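can u do me a favor
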């Protein structure tokens, strides 16, 4: 069937016609391409178009929709006054529309939508005027397999009401005498799609919305469709953003070796998988091995692999009996050319086993190793890992350099490659990939007793630091940990935190995370509970299924405060967090930089975050004591304050205290600058 076989009237009007059944469905069922410019779009409108969309899915047809984001008057006022960013409000409104659709559509239409987007057959773009007026034009073009097109224009929006309930009228152009009108519509739409229309700005649909839409696809068998396994425009679902393209290009130009040093929350996973696609394009085939820090991260990666790579996945985790023989077979089949593409994902723990190393020491051909959080690669665990068997290697980390382990850093870079691309937190915030934040440092007094214990441990460290026996080195490590814990778990922190949180409007507290030291979690939960706040701990005691429930309750505000220990270090994201209290942070930037990045992940309705940091200083004690602690605590202050919205305020307040010790210069030294100075002074026993 072709459009040329249909009989069209010049006009369809609600007084005489069922516009949906008389016009839209026949056109969809006989078209290969549907282009639509609509003033408004709602996901529920697809409920009416379901049958036509199923045929599009089977035939491999394509739909392109440009729609208005449907901003409210209040939204537009907020944009004009500078209270909200336009792209954030657009993302919020579209996500809300999707959620409304999921609640109201009872049939399986959303499954069809999800598959169409997943296959690259359904694409959206968003149009808005440059003066914040409403984009309100409405026209469309249907094109069949032979390239014959018809166009229409009129009052109907791409909404449920516009297609079924409202009194509407559309004019249709289908005859040869209308060819100039049809061509004008085609030209207008192409200009619109490619952002070439004066007074309008047309943008891509955010990836977060695409991922949300495709997450609801289920089985296709219920349609009895004979769908080709090859995916049309498959890789267009997630296109390379400018910064991702730059990162991938630099990696490619470095002979497919190197580390992407990208701030936490900026899409390292997506960038790395787009890199796999690029590598496959250049080599035609690839066996990809991905190493992640923890088992629960395997599932997160699996979801993104299914979206971007659409390849078979073997998970090498848990019992060796579940994966060893399968991995051996896959490598053999790949070496023989029986498999073109395959993904194997594992953890650092498993990748260090002799079985895993042996299997991949035999692989040949185009191979790619992705090391997530590559700072976990250590010389002890990976000294005999078959890095050389992987033609391409890609490391991912916000903090690739290892703290007080220069040999480890050198080993990592010799194994994976140098840092080839850097995407800083400031860049991510400026480019609206992360949420801006305000920083509130709270000075906690290091008591006389704690300072005395700190100095006593230091004397012991000095006494044995020059001895080289293994037994004494082990004891030395324990002493360093004991000394660090005095700051890490300073006894005044909890009392100071409770005083601070009581100053807040307790009735409106929500989306608040408290990050505490091991051993303190139960006490802190108890103290918060006394304030009649809904609180829960979030640590290793909480199983994965329970975590999902807790996070959902946290997002909905049913739990106001979560108290956590190591969850953020292990890749568990809590993007709904607006207020964060860091009661424990070491001097290692890998720890506190990663934690900050996870809190700054974007979330619906989240305009900025507030980060409260508890800095331990021996206020009132002599300069020598104050300086010892300050040089370890203040680099974190520098790191956090430099990127904060209230940068000037934090510096002014801290300088009032540091002026007394003539140490204001410490406010401007970042962690690695202090690290270099400490390395130079390390042989000075008085400094230890």
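np, heres the sequence
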């Amino acid at each position: 069937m072709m459009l040329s076989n249909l009989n069209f009237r010049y006009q369809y009007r609600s007084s005489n016609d069922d516009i949906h059944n008389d016009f839209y469905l026949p056109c969809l069922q006989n078209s290969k391409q549907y282009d639509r410019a609509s003033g408004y779009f709602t996901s529920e409108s697809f409920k009416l178009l379901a049958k036509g969309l199923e045929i599009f899915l089977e035939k491999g047809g394509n739909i392109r929709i440009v729609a208005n984001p449907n901003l409210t008057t209040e939204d537009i006022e907020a944009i004009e006054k500078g209270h909200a960013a336009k792209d954030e409000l657009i993302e919020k409104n579209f996500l809300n529309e999707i959620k409304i659709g999921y609640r109201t559509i009872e049939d399986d239409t959303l499954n069809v939508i999800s598959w169409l987007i997943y296959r690259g057959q359904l694409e959206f773009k968003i149009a808005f005027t440059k003066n914040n007026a409403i984009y309100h034009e409405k026209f469309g073009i249907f094109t069949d397999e032979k390239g014959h097109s018809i166009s229409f224009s009129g009052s109907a929006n791409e909404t449920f009401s516009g297609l079924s309930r409202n009194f509407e009228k559309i004019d249709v152009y289908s005859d040869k005498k209308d060819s100039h009108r049809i061509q004008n519509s085609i030209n207008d739409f192409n200009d619109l799609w490619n952002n070439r229309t004066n007074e309008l700005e047309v943008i891509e649909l955010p990836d977060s919305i695409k991922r949300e839409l495709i997450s609801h696809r289920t089985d296709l068998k219920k349609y009895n469709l004979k769908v080709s396994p090859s995916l049309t425009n498959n890789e267009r679902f997630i296109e390379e953003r400018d910064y991702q393209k730059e990162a991938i290009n630099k990696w490619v130009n470095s002979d497919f070796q190197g580390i992407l040093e990208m701030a936490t929350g900026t899409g390292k996973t997506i960038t790395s998988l787009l890199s796999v696609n690029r590598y496959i394009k250049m080599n035609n085939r690839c066996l990809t091995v991905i190493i992640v820090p923890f088992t629960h991260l395997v599932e997160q990666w699996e979801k993104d692999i299914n979206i971007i790579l659409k390849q078979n996945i073997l998970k090498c985790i848990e019992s060796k009996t579940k994966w060893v023989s399968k991995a051996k077979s896959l490598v053999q089949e790949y070496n023989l050319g029986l498999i073109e593409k395959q993904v194997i994902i594992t953890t650092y723990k498993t990748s260090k086993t002799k079985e895993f190393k042996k299997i991949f020491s035999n692989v040949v051909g185009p191979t790619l190793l992705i090391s997530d959080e590559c700072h976990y690669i250590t010389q002890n665990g990976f000294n005999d890992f078959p890095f050389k068997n992987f033609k391409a290697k890609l490391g991912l980390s916000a903090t690739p350099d290892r703290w007080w382990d220069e040999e480890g850093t050198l080993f990592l870079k010799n194994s994976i490659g140098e840092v080839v691309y850097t995407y800083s937190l400031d860049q991510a915030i400026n480019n609206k990939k992360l949420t801006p934040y305000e920083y509130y440092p709270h000075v906690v007094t290091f008591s006389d007793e704690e300072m005395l214990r700190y100095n006593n441990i230091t004397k012991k460290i000095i006494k044995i630091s020059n001895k080289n026996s293994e037994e004494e080195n082990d004891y030395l490590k324990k002493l360093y940990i004991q000394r660090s814990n005095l700051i890490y778990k300073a006894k005044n922190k909890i009392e100071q935190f409770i005083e601070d949180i009581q100053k807040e409007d307790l009735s409106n507290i929500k989306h608040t995370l408290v990050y505490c030291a091991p051993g303190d979690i139960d006490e802190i939960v108890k103290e918060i509970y006394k304030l009649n706040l809904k609180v829960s701990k979030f640590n290793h005691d909480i199983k994965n299924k329970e975590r999902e429930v807790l996070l959902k309750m946290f997002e909905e505000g049913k739990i106001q405060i979560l108290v956590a220990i190591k969850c953020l270090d292990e890749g568990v994201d809590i993007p709904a967090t607006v207020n964060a209290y860091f009661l424990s942070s070491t001097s290692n930037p890998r720890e506190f930089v990663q934690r900050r990045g996870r809190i700054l992940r974007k979330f619906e309705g989240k305009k900025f975050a507030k980060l409260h940091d508890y800095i331990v200083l021996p206020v009132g004690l002599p300069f020598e004591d104050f300086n010892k602690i300050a040089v370890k605590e203040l680099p974190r202050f520098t790191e956090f304050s430099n990127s904060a919205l209230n940068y000037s305020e934090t510096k002014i307040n801290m300088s009032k205290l540091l002026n007394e010790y003539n140490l204001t210069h410490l406010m401007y030294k970042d962690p690695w600058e202090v690290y270099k100075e400490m390395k130079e002074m390390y042989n000075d026993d008085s400094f230890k």
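The mean pLDDT is 83. hope that helps!!
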